[in-house]
Amino acid sequence: MHDERSNDGPRGRHGLGFAGYFGGFWAFLLVLVLGTAGLIGGLALQGDLDLRTRRQR
Q1: What distances in angstroms separate CA 8 from CA 45, 49, 50, 56, one per listed residue?
Q2: Measured by CB atoms within 10 angstroms of the end CB, which terminus of the chain is less buried, N or C?
Q3: Residue 25 in contact with residue 33, Cβ under 8 Å?
Q4: Which has the closest alpha carbon to 36: 14, 17, 16, 6?
């Protein structure tokens, strides 16, 4: 792991903007859903996100 800031946020917003502009609402929604799934899957595979833990109240 590294502590440097990532450029993934601006890249994701540019991707969403292009999809929305050129493809319309459904393309925007598709890119949003696939990007979110990719982020969650990547974090889980990398070990930065543990999907098995639950918060105790």
Answers
A1: 17, 17, 21, 31
A2: C
A3: no
A4: 16
- What are the C-alpha distances in Å from 16 to residues 7, 32, 34, 37? 15, 7, 11, 14
Domain boundaries, the chain: 8-46
Kindly give the confidence (pLDDT) of every residue in the chain, 57 residues in length, as a single tens digit, with 9 standing for 90 and above.
Answer: 554 556 677 777 888 888 889 999 999 899 889 888 888 888 888 887 776 766 655
DSSP assignment letter at 46: H
Q: Can you list the alpha helix ranges (DSSP code H) found in the chain?
A: 8-23, 25-46
Q: Which residue has the tokens 């050129």?
A: 22
Distance CA(11)–CA(27), nearest Å, equals 16
